């Protein structure tokens, strides 16, 4: 899973959590087990105060 974080112009942080694509062997195993991969989570917009980042860093 990847969590790229992009600072915004209004001092917030956009976090785009993403699951990587499975290769063919893993996809076949998941299918044979009768499972499905998880959905991609929605992006999160986080304020600087919640991250406890000092002014001037972002």
Structure, described:
It is a single chain. This protein is of the alpha+beta class and 58 residues long. It has one domain (5-51). The chain has two helices and three strands. Strands 1-2-3 form a three-stranded antiparallel beta sheet. A hairpin with a 4-residue loop joins β1 and β2. The longest helix is centred in the middle third of the chain and has 9 residues, at 24-32. 0% of the residues are buried.
Short description:
The protein has 58 residues and is an alpha+beta fold. It contains two helices and three strands, in the order ββαβα.
Content-based structural category:
alpha+beta
General form = rod-shaped
**Gap between N and C termini, in Å?**
24 Å
Strand tally is 3
In what range is the share of β-strand residues?
15-25%
**What is the radius of gyration?**
17 Å
| Relative helix content | 10-25%
Strand order of the largest sheet: 1-2-3
Low-confidence stretches: none
Mean of residue pLDDT values: 79
Order of helices and strands: EEHEH
The number of helical elements comes to 2
Question: What summary fits the major beta sheet?
Answer: 3 strands, antiparallel
Number of domains: 1
């Amino acid at each position: 899973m990847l969590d790229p974080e992009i600072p915004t112009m209004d001092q917030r942080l956009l976090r785009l959590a993403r699951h990587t694509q499975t290769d063919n062997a893993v996809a076949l195993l998941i299918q044979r087990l009768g499972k499905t991969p998880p959905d991609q989570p929605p992006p999160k917009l986080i304020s600087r105060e919640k991250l406890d980042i000092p002014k001037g860093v972002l």
